[in-house]
Amino acid sequence: MSFRLTYATMFNPPAEMHVQFEDALARLEARFGQRHPLFVNGADRAPAHWSAKRTPIDTDVILGEFPLADAGDVDAAMQAAHAAYPKWRALPVAQRAALLRKAGDLMQQRVYDIAAALTLEVGKNRMEALGEAQETVDFFHHYADDFERHAGFEKPLPDDPIEGMASHNRSVMRPYGAWVVIAPFNFPFALAGGPVAAALVTGNTVVFKSATDTPWSGRLLAEVLRDAGFPAGTFNYLSGSGSEAGDALAKHPLTAGITFTGSVPVGRNLMQQMAGGAYPRPCIAEMGGKNPCIVTEHADLDRAAAGIARSAFGMGGQKCSALSRLYVHESVADALVGKLLQQIDAIRIGDARKREHWLGPVVNASAYANYARYVLDLEAGGARLLRGGKQLRENGGGKGYYVEPVLAEADVSHPLWKQEMFLPIVMLHRYRDRDDAMRLANDTDMGLTAGFYGGADEVPWFQDHIEAGVTYANRPQGATTGAWPGYQPFGGWKGSGSTGKAIASFYYLQQYLREQSRTVVE
């Protein structure tokens, strides 16, 4: 198929894409109820305990039985990764990169089946699911290309200025060892596959743990790497709770480094654990966002409304990059609100397997309950709900976790301006002074993404003053969302990230390596 899916091209796909997605859904539905084991040391591994995974689309439907890894499974995976590390590290860069590209090609062949699994276990619509699956393909190719292009980051240095002998110097980047990747539920394939690819191509081996809500996508990633021919122990897949399997991985003596995507409290705890012990170990943590958008009186309001709705409500707001804080100049606020209400009213909510539904369910019962609690908190704090606020299960939403998108106007003193809700809730404030809007936009401990709609001459002001790692100006495809490998590096400032380096950036792969200075005297 000549059509190439990205987050920027997904708004007018060909009919063939829908046919292939629905065929993939049928294939996966035929496999409902099967068991999907762990993958350790090149082979399937049965856990001591299994858990039935239900879809948030319809909680009567059991997708399959998935493993709950315990400390014994964690140890087996870490031992396998540690044993495989010397041979994997010793492979030439070209061979590791070739295996990554082979895995990427296999993902491309399976992109519809992977996307169908993402829709079933996360509840995201088909376009979001296909975008995530394709993005992971691009991660594997991008990191292979990047590492080869930089020749493994080895650099010759000048000889020492010593008379009578040759003293040669070189800077060499070396991997760490058995690297742990812990992925979130919202992008369980891309935010697993991206760091897995980065760790592998740089010569580390990997133990990967999926989120408890999304074990199927993790197993599909394991099957891709298995079928691509990665040596036994090079990649290992676990599924289990953060409190048991995740904690055991962080505390394991063979854990050389961790990449984590998830909440601020868990990420900071992991950073502290990795900094302790006999010596500090690297921890790459991406920890969420409370992302703002500023709309000035010079903005294209149609473009702004489209981008705001897509960023605030896409995938039910369950993105670390989702828009949740909206600051609008008072002179255009009423007009923008009118356009936003039209956007919200046009959103079709329901079974994410169906083509006509743009907004599926939230991921689980906890998110569903949190939605009701936040709506009550908004109203108790004096906020005015301009749209939304209802759970839909009791109003014809079947047995899934469906909710309405919320647009709420609230005083800036409301505590929810500071809290990441991870739901389709956006709060609005009318401002008079542009600098005051910027102060409010930066008034958060997080700094992941930020959006802006205004005049072309105002964009430099926005970019120079906003405290965020990813910025978008006048973007209708998404006010704060939509980064893609090779186009927009993705990483946060302040409490949103631990390193100041972005995913798929010029600086990302070096984080999986440590420098060794080599001097040889002839």
TrEMBL record:
Cellular-component GO terms for this entry = cytoplasmic side of plasma membrane
The annotated active site, in chain numbering, is E286
Enzyme Commission designation: 1.2.1.88
* Domain Aldehyde dehydrogenase, chain residue ranges per copy: 55-514
| NAD listed as a keyword | yes
Statement: the UniProt record of this protein carries the keyword Repeat: no
Keywords for the protein's UniProt record, in alphabetical order: NAD, Oxidoreductase
An example of a GO molecular function for this protein is: L-glutamate gamma-semialdehyde dehydrogenase activity
Q: Which InterPro entries match?
A: Ald_DH/histidinol_DH, Ald_DH_C, Ald_DH_CS_CYS, Ald_DH_CS_GLU, Ald_DH_N, Aldehyde_DH_dom, Proline_metab_enzyme
- What are its GO biological-process terms? L-proline catabolic process to L-glutamate
Query: Under which pathway is this protein filed?
Result: Amino-acid degradation; L-proline degradation into L-glutamate; L-glutamate from L-proline: step 2/2
Q: What class of enzyme is it?
A: oxidoreductase
Read off the Gene3D superfamilies from this record.
Aldehyde Dehydrogenase, Chain A, domain 1, Aldehyde Dehydrogenase, Chain A, domain 2
Which protein are we looking at?
L-glutamate gamma-semialdehyde dehydrogenase
Q: Which species does the entry assign this protein to? A: Lysobacter dokdonensis DS-58
